[in-house]
Design a protein that fits this description.
Oligomer: single chain
Structural class: mainly beta
Radius of gyration: 13 Å
Largest sheet: 7 strands, mixed
Number of strands: 11
Shape: globular
Number of helices: 0
C-alpha cells in the first residue's frame, strides 16, 4: 500500500500564496491534486506525469497553480498563487501506478487524508 501524506494547508488571504506538499512512501508514476467542497464531488485540480514534463490543470486554476515533483524524494507540490475565496476546499493528493494523467478521481488508487485550505479576508 502506498501512503500519501499532504501538508502545507492553512488559512490565507485573497491574493496570497500557499504551497502544498504530498510525500509518497514509494514511487508513484502519476500523481494529481484534487479538491472537495462540502456538498460537491471531488474536483480535479492538477496532475503530473513521471518526468514532470506533462501537466494538466483545471480551468479554474490555470495560470495560478503549478504542479511539480521531485522524484528522488517521491514528493509532489502544488504552488497556489493569487488565491481566491472559491479555492477554499479540502485538498487531496492522489496517485496511481499507470503513466497516464487522468482527470477523473475514479482512476486513482491511492489517496492522502487531505489538507484544509481556507481563503478568507
Amino acid at each position: 500500500q502506498v501512503q500519501l501524506v499532504e501538508s502545507g494547508g492553512g488559512l490565507a488571504k485573497p491574493g496570497d500564496s500557499l504551497t502544498l506538499s504530498c510525500a509518497a512512501s514509494a514511487r508513484t508514476p502519476t500523481m494529481a491534486w484534487f479538491r472537495q467542497i462540502p456538498g460537491k464531488e471531488r474536483e480535479f485540480v492538477g496532475g503530473i506525469n513521471w518526468t514532470g514534463g506533462t501537466t494538466y490543470y483545471a480551468d479554474s486554476v490555470k495560470g495560478r497553480f503549478t504542479v511539480s515533483r521531485v522524484n528522488p524524494k517521491n514528493t509532489m507540490y502544488l504552488q497556489m498563487n493569487n488565491l481566491k475565496p472559491e479555492d477554499t476546499a479540502v485538498y487531496y493528493c492522489a496517485a496511481h501506478r499507470g503513466t497516464i494523467v487522468y482527470k477523473s478521481h475514479t482512476r486513482y488508487d491511492y489517496w492522502g487524508q487531505g489538507t484544509q485550505v481556507t481563503v478568507s479576508s
